[in-house]
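To: structure subgroup
Subject: Chain for Friday's discussion

All,

I'm putting the inputs and outputs inline so they're searchable in the archive.
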Amino acid sequence: MPEQADVSEEQVVAFLKNNPDIFKGHPGLLAELALTHDSSGAISLIERQVQVLRERNILLRRQLNDLLRAARSNDELFANVRTLTLALLDVSAWPELNEVLATHLVVDFDADFVCCHLLREQLHLDHVLGHPEALPTAVFIRNGQPRCLAMRSGELQQVFPMQEHEQDGSAVLLPLALRSCDGCLAIGSRDPQHFLPDMDTLFLGYISDVISRIIDQLSAAVVGERRGRAA
């Protein structure tokens, strides 16, 4: 690619003289120029208006960029939620649920740990654990609402016992709306700033609702099998 020659100030002046209507075809260019005049230190009304418009233009550009970034993030998040939901609909056994949680929640949602805690016995998978008496997440839940919080290493060990935790991190805890038992879905990160208290949990709440339905279906299937064997 040939190198571009530097344009001198004289060339710019000559170009503007030969093209006096250039700003008619590029009106936005005026907002990028700094035009001043000698008025003994005073700022004219027109100059002040141009300054305000330029600042407003910069602010609007920043807001538009923020909206575009949020839209792209939401599109990606929606696609991941859709993929997870479709995978959950194919779950017909506890090991399959364990695999879906490990694969989709950890990989697609940029998490390091995931564990679904259920108040029931005889369920000890890597990412789905049963507890006979109390859930290890109960101490952190308030009013049954989802919660994002920083966690010390010992707390992470309590909530995500499948891995060793030597440093602090963060987690989001999602109480499950189950008919069969109490439960909580925990998603964690090694980054203490990953799950912040002001984080929006709308999509995660939707995920917990879908998982709750799947767990109730699996629990009902287990009860049906037991009744069949008893008969």
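Points worth raising on Friday:
The chain has a mean pLDDT of 82.
The longest strand covers residues 169-176.

D.
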